[in-house]
Write the structure tokens for this entry.
Amino acid sequence: MATETWGQLKSLEGSKLEILDAEFTREVSKIIGGQDLTACFQCAKCSGGCPVSDKVNVQVHQLMRMLLFGLEEVLKTDMVWLCTTCYQCQQRCPQGINITDIIFGLKNMAFRKGINPPGYVASRKALYDSGKLYEPTDWERDDLGLGPVPPLDVAETRKVLDKTGLMKLREGE
Ligand code: SF4
Ligand code: SF4
């Protein structure tokens, strides 16, 4: 799947959804929190506290239902990728479902299947190449009374990233 823009991950409108793919639900049930999918009774308390609810097309309670129905298209929704991992939903869930952990797992699953927004791929490269996700400038540091940006040895960062296998994951196709 080509993932050129965030927009492509946004809407499932017009897609023909394959329903009840039990194999996908089984796969999800193996990630942390995934074993509690059936406990969700769709109260939507999770969505009510989600800070990105006005930015996504699929709300987090809908995502939970999609997982139970085995809709693999869920991996292409922006809910998975715009989740800030704030844990609000997890805190609010009356059923104690580890929703944020499930979303973490979905991100990993999506990346392994080659579904990922370009911004993530660029961040991964920046982290590997420079050890930083953001390049502070000398003038910004100057404003804070700090000296020039010190050089950074990225060897340790790369060692950690190599161990996680992050760089081996393929980009979206
Ligand atoms: S708060 Fe929990 S039970 Fe309610 S919809 Fe969300 S996941 Fe389901
Ligand atoms: S952890 Fe993600 S899905 Fe849950 S409330 Fe925060 S942003 Fe929304």
About this structure: Residues 44 and 61 are 5 Å apart (CA to CA). Residues 118-168 form one domain. The chain has two domains: 6-112, 118-168.
